[in-house]
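Extended Data, panel c. Modelled sequence:
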Amino acid sequence: MSQISTPMEFKNYKTFRYTFAGRPLVIETGKMAGLANGSVLIRYGDTVLLCCATASAKPRDGIDFLPLSVDYDERMYAAGKIPGGYLKREGKPSEKAILTSRVIDRPIRPLFPKDLRNDVALTLTVMSVDPDCSPEITAMIGASTALAISDIPWNGPIGGVFMGLVDGKLIVNPNEEEQKKSDLQLTVAASMKKVVMIEAGANEVDDDTMYEAIMMAHEEIKDLLGFINAIVDEIGKPKFDYPSCELDHDMFDKVFAFCEKDMMEALDTDDKNVRDEKVVPITDAIIEKFSEEYPEIASIMDELIYKIQKKIVRRWLLVDKKRVDGRRMDQIRPLGSEVGILPRTHGSGLFTRGQTQVLTVATLGMLSEAQMLDGIDNETEKRYMHHYNMPGFSTGEAKATRSPGRREIGHGALAERSLVPVLPSPEEFPYAIRLVSDVVSSNGSTSQGSVCGSTLALMDAGVPIKAPVAGISCGLITAEDGSWDTMIDIQGLEDFYGDMDFKVAGTHKGITSIQMDLKIDGLTPEIIKAALAQTHVGRDYIIDEVILKAIPAPRAEVSKYAPKMTTFKIDPDKIREVIGKGGSVIQKIVAESGAKVDIDDDGIICIAATNGECAAKAKAMIDAIVFEPEVGATYSGTVVKILASKDKPNEDVGCFVEYAPGKEGMVHISKITTRRINKVTDAGIDVGSSVKVKYMGLDKKGRMDFSIRDAE
């Protein structure tokens, strides 16, 4: 007979316990995934993930970047669900899984050695979900721990927490009920000394409260890192050696001296096209000059040019306080905005900032057109959808259009998060809303350009948003001596060669979203406070001087091409009558009125039509179905059936009249006419005849009693 092993029989099995925001956090090692470079099974409450870190033995040839992949892998069984669709198995990652992968990637990536080119893969498999214990935060902690105890070179660990704001009180790792009431959804990742990642959505939270939340999060993370470091001290592996892929320093110095003056002249312009054209002959001259001495120089030219430009741009910013396009450090590029440029769409807005240009289009639909979600959390649909596209022509590249990648999904989600706090409720504005932001020209900060374009499009569509939202990015440049400076509205080169892209969107009142990308090992509190202040000034300027001057307020009415919504409530007990057997009644209403009709389980009915007449007709038909007939009132109807007598073949019992869509009443043969007849047809009435009926009340058996005779 086989014997089942217990965890204690695993030779290297260890368990580490910690109390994290009042809930148990348990990290197990040595039992699963023993062939990975590092692995942990992490439990936070009843949330469980297997987190594995692996690395290739050799560097990947021909690349100038770290080939890191982070995959947050949701198993539907984690939430006790069977996947939808025909195959009934997990398919491509959900958008939420992709966004979580990005949130974990961003704080981890900057802490790898700059010259590492080995493939590194982090696989974070969600196996059980406790709604009160965030699987995203658990995954971040598990990924950090797996990397830290592995032999993969990495300058971690980092930790992460989720912050909420309920009734003005900051809460670390709020539970599910607290998250529903929270005005803040803030994820912070940090090392022991610095904050390395910020991701936030907020209901117009002020700068001081946001800063306090970030600092509180960092203090909580410091204690968590003490726990992780103790694990590393006990079981951590020595980091493996790897061949450095740094450029030859002597070669770089020679090439830089050769082209420095020409490259400075090429970079000194606010036009990306001009700059790119000027760099081409410089590249050719470098290859011609040094190919004999350095035969491999052509194959590393992209990395070489990158580092040459980076050295020049960073020197300008740090020493000369000079920006590539001649702006001051606190100066925004030229701005422009237009609305209503696409006549047949429901709303459109074009936002321009320098050479960055985003066209956003709004489409309004019925609430039933909300996106259905199939994930491991309890969110089943979303009414507001924001999609972001960045085609090749926007950067001057000749490449075919592809389906959206992780970057496009991430930027769309950021813009979506930025606008959600100012949208009207479904009761105030009963529409599903889809925005599409198409980047038509890109030279830095397109995600924040899409936020501004979205505000324009929503207002042009007549969506009564609570306040206009603008987004802007703040950059950072740091020196080895610890000095630093921030700059507002970074363009492409400043994003590529700077140390930070700190994106903040919000209204005059407060912040609605933050996303921070770093290329260094973290930010100090002083830098965070400076970035919040600088972006606040920037977004206030954009709102007042650009957005509100293009369209001072949301349009009073939606476009004539948008569906017009009529919403009202009926008795839920009447829903079955409105729908009819097999949907026959509601299909008839739609066919005859030309309107679309949605019915919720609580009796809320939403009618959508391109004109008021169609909506009014549909509503009248529904009203006729759900109303209770009044005794003595007369109604127009149609004979739908003649009931023959079972006992007397030559006589009829009466007929059924449809006096409202889907509602029929019986008229006895004696109440069809004043004279005696045996057949309904004797009175000139047949199936399909239009008649008037009078409601006489209930008969002795409690049945509804109608009369044609008394209606005349």
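The longest strand covers residues 47-59. This feature is highlighted in the accompanying rendering.
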